[in-house]
Write a structure and sequence with these properties.
- The chain has about 180 residues and is α+β, with helices and mostly antiparallel strands.
- It has a domain of about 100 residues: Rieske [2Fe-2S] iron-sulphur domain (Rieske Iron-sulfur Protein).
- The protein contains 1 helix and 10 strands; from the N terminus they run αββββββββββ.
- A hairpin with a 5-residue loop joins strand 2 and strand 3.
- The protein is elongated, with a radius of gyration of 41 Å.
Length: about 180
């Protein structure tokens, strides 16, 4: 054994420790009970493993959802409403069943007007003077122009056409200027 503070000149005999200020790497991290503390390297390895597993799990969920569409198709922008004979010439608008639309068939021809109030989206009702919003009191003339607010813009007019089978088609994705009428013989 060496004297205190002096290094040992040669190899240490079995079981003796030198006066080295650094701990023995073999015994580093060991508790008295024989279990090892997790080292930084072990922690990082486990964290990388859990991160990879989580990434793969999220990717698997994404792949599993692929067959289902993320956005379901809405109602078609082209609406067949029936033959022109179903809409007699009248000053009264006819509500399209299941849709927020009115069809007017006057002497000048057909037109399709939105039934959605431009103020907050309420459904307007026909009146002898035009249309009225029951929610906030907006009034619209028969051609959809605002006669009393709070609505700030007129009701939308939609393009119409005739399908090859003769039925009327309303194109709700295409607006036309107010007063546009269509003649279908």
């Amino acid at each position: 054994m060496s004297e205190k503070g002096k290094p040992h000149p040669g190899p240490l005999p079995q079981g003796e420790k030198g006066d080295c200020p650094h701990p023995d790497p073999v015994s580093q991290g060991e508790k008295g009970d024989g279990s090892a503390d997790p080292s930084r390297r072990d922690f990082l390895a486990r964290a990388a493993g859990w991160t990879a597993a989580g990434t793969l799990a999220f990717a698997a969920v994404g792949v599993a959802r692929m067959p289902k569409p993320g956005v379901l198709p809405g109602k078609s922008a082209e609406l067949k409403v029936g033959p022109p004979g179903n809409f007699p010439v009248s000053a009264d608008p006819v509500r399209v069943a299941g849709r927020n639309l009115f069809i007017l068939h006057g002497a000048e021809g057909f037109c399709a007007i939105s039934a959605i109030c431009t103020h907050l989206g309420c459904i307007v009702a026909p009146t002898p003077q035009g249309f009225a919003c029951p929610c906030h009191g907006s009034l619209f003339a028969a051609d959809g122009k605002v006669t009393r607010g709070p609505a700030g813009s007129p009701l939308a007019w939609f393009e119409m056409s005739r399908a090859p089978d003769g039925t009327l088609v309303i194109h709700t994705n295409r607006t036309v200027p107010a007063g546009t009428r269509y003649q279908f013989a």
